[in-house]
Design a protein that fits this description.
The complex is a heterodimer of chains A (184) and B (457). By secondary structure, chain A is of the alpha+beta class. Chain A has helices at residues 16-26, 57-68, 107-117, 152-165, 176-182; strands at 2-11, 30-39, 42-51, 73-79, 92-100, 121-129, 138-147, 169-174. Chain A has two domains: 2-79, ACT domain (Alpha-Beta Plaits); 92-182, 2-Layer Sandwich (Alpha-Beta Plaits), CATH 3.30.70.260. In chain A, strand 6 (121-129) and strand 7 (138-147) form a beta hairpin. Chain B has 457 residues and is an alpha/beta fold. Chain B has helices at residues 4-16, 38-52, 56-67, 81-84, 90-106, 125-140, 159-175, 221-234, 240-269, 291-297, 307-325, 343-350, 356-362, 381-397, 440-443; strands spanning 21-28, 71-78, 111-118, 144-152, 156-158, 187-191, 212-218, 272-277, 329-330, 370-376, 402-409, 417-419, 426-428, 447-448. Classes of the chains: A alpha+beta (184), B alpha/beta (457). Chains A and B meet through strand 6, strand 7, strand 8 and helix 5 of A and helix 1, helix 3 and helix 9 of B.
């Protein structure tokens, strides 16, 4: 078995996961992880599966595309790298960054540029921009890992300065506080 | 991974509902500072306090930053000075108060509590010396808070001590006449005082406690009010059982924050974590008021008929939510109704909705008691003592803590305004029944025996 990561994109409708998993099952693949979400009306799913050695990547794509293209879905596969790459095994602490403020282009890019410069890894991002100046209609929630050896004060300062320049209300809090309040 | 709603509700509580940790209080045992030499004793306590509290403010600020939750006040409570400084006379007790004030200043805390005596069954020589020193000590210092326990369910009510406190409060008011009797705002008279209160002015470290301990007072009246407002906006027909559940859930969240912050501060200081005090503590700011909760529940104002039962509901729901949220609950743990410290409550008094008698009734179902109540300056010592004794009876008979923090504002009469400033707020002066009259009952003095239900063994 080799590991493949398969991404499926397209307009949401009933039966997408059923179709993807049926094809994988027929090709004797073993699903290890699935994550999916719906943004507005668009479905996006990521599947990690063990694929038989005998099944080539091209054949897997052919089978998936044959089943999914008629449903208006785009599919992409990639061999899963065994190299863990950078960022893993970094000693870090989980924080949550929340911004509210008027919509404009480049908000996510501006904030994440600072995070990247401080080696902060975004583990989950939820962003809703309904447009306009209502702060509650334009929200970004970043769940991030901040390396323990990062300069917290400088990071906070840079984020706050950028937020001020963008008229955003920004908070940065350790994740434990959300766990303490929301989880029993 | 948290849902958007979970994250935004926490951010909302902090940004718009005045959620904070009201106080992190470092309790310090001073009994090992003992000496019969006043210079040595004050040197010892100064070294002990400034040493142990050196990093208190810094660490509270760091932990507050980490979680995005401000620790508004950092404070210190110490062993009762009448015990720790047992050999000293009143003049020497004054120099202890000065030392406490200086040590608190060096540690950058706003209040230090424990200029205290426990006299529920009898007044020892040092207790008398300390109480005698109180008016001047509270006048000459900014940070020192005093408390005296004059009654308990197991001991009864020491009316001699109550009378002594009536005189002491009058004298403290007289010495701070230019500040509307401010010294009295730093002096609490208790029945059944707990050993681990983090809130001022009643905080002291009980003799049954360890060398050092971190106790936390949470806040959150604004959060409770907004939770009720949101719930009733989406369903105007909520009944009181349902509202009680909403308050309970909210108290849970508020208490979890106190527990988290308290534990981390304690761990960083290398000190044992004590308790979370579940009291809803207001400030004189709009949106941070216990009084406003009564209006959200549907009453015209705190003080109108229905207020006592509403407070009973509120207090009980806060305890239930808080008890589940924290592994260690202590202190006062009940809603506070300090008149001058809560803008809405002081307005209710000004509008005539709230009388001292109704306040007293309400203290039957919550913690503390007649708290930050400004009364006419010509209220006699005996009447002051009688008000205190009534409040003590409620505590003693109901096996609960009650207290008074009464301020007879010199030169002012009912309907005038008193200004204390800052967190202590301002208030109309409330009328007192028989303010200047005599009270032959109280004057008899002695010890009112403990009630029959104290014989529980």
């Amino acid at each position: 078995m080799k590991k493949m990561i398969i991404s499926v994109l397209g307009k949401d409708r009933p039966g997408i996961i059923a179709a993807v998993t049926r094809i994988l099952f027929e090709q004797d693949c073993n699903i290890e992880n699935v994550s999916q979400t719906i943004l507005q009306n668009e479905f996006s799913g990521i599947f990690i599966a063990g694929v038989p050695k005998a099944l080539s990547e091209a054949d897997l794509h052919r089978h998936l595309n044959a089943g999914l293209a008629p449903m208006g879905l785009h599919v992409y596969e990639k061999r899963l790298s065994t190299d863990n790459g950078p960022q893993t095994d970094v000693d870090s602490e989980p924080f949550v960054v929340v911004t509210k403020g008027p919509d404009r282009k480049g908000l996510v890019a501006s904030i994440t540029a600072i995070m990247a410069a401080h080696r902060v890894n975004v583990t989950n991002l939820q962003a809703v921009f309904k447009g306009g100046d209502d702060p509650n209609a334009n929200i970004m929630i970043y769940e991030v890992d901040i390396p323990s050896d990062a300069n917290h004060q400088a990071l906070r300062r840079d984020l706050r300065e950028k937020a001020l320049a963008l008229s955003l209300d920004l908070s940065i809090q350790h994740k434990l506080i959300f766990e303490a309040i929301n989880r029993v | 991974m948290f849902s958007e709603r979970e994250i935004l509700s926490v951010v909302e509580m902090l940004k718009n509902e005045n959620l904070d940790v009201r106080t992190v209080t470092l309790g310090l045992n001073l009994l090992d500072c003992a000496s019969d030499d006043i210079g040595r004793f004050t040197d010892n306590i100064y070294a002990r306090i400034t040493g142990a509290a050196k990093n208190l403010v810094k660490i509270c600020d760091e932990v507050g930053d980490k979680y995005g939750i401000p620790v508004v006040n950092k404070r210190i409570s110490v062993s009762p000075i009448a015990v720790a400084g047992a050999p000293f006379n009143a003049q020497q007790m004054l120099s202890v108060a000065t030392t406490l004030n200086e040590a608190a200043g060096a540690a950058r805390v706003d209040f230090i509590g424990g200029f205290s005596a426990l006299v529920e069954k009898g007044i020892a020589r040092a207790d008398r010396a300390l109480i005698e020193a109180m008016p001047e000590a509270l006048t000459g210092t900014q940070r020192v808070c005093a408390s005296v326990n004059v009654a308990s369910t197991r001991a009864g009510i020491n009316i001699d001590a109550v009378l002594l406190m009536g005189r002491t409060i009058k004298e403290a008011a007289r010495l701070t006449a230019d500040r509307d009797g401010l010294a009295c705002a730093k002096l609490c008279v208790f029945a059944n005082i707990p050993q681990d209160i983090p809130f001022m002015a009643g905080a002291y470290l009980g003799v049954g406690e360890a060398d050092a301990v971190i106790n936390v007072g949470v806040s959150g009246p604004g959060v409770v009010k907004k939770a009720i407002d949101r719930a009733t906006a989406s369903n105007p027909n909520l009944n009181l059982g349902q509202l009680s559940e909403i308050i309970k859930h909210t108290a849970y969240k508020v208490t979890r924050i106190g527990e988290l912050i308290g534990r981390e501060v304690a761990q960083r200081l290398g000190i044992k974590f004590g308790v979370v005090d579940l009291s809803l503590a207001p400030t004189p700011n709009v949106g941070d008021s216990v009084g406003e909760i009564f209006q959200s529940l549907g009453l015209a104002s705190i003080g109108v008929p229905g207020s006592t039962v509403a407070l009973a509901l509120l207090n009980d729901a806060v305890k239930k939510g808080g008890a589940f949220a924290s592994s260690k609950v202590g202190g006062l743990s009940g809603a506070f109704i300090p008149v001058s410290e809560d803008l809405n409550i002081s307005q209710a008094a000004a509008q005539g909705h709230l009388s001292i008698e109704k306040l007293e009734a309400m203290t039957c179902v919550c913690s503390v008691g007649l708290d930050m109540v400004a009364i006419p300056g010509d209220t006699s010592e005996e009447t002051l003592a009688a008000i205190i004794a009534d409040e003590m009876a409620i505590g003693v008979i109901n096996k609960k803590t009650t207290a008074t923090r009464l301020i007879p504002v010199p030169g002012k009469k009912a309907g005038d305004h008193a200004f204390f400033g800052g967190l202590l707020g301002e208030s109309i002066i409330m009328p007192v029944n028989n303010a200047t009259g005599e009270n032959r009952f109280l004057r008899r003095g002695g010890l009112i025996p403990s009630p029959i239900h104290s014989l529980v063994n």
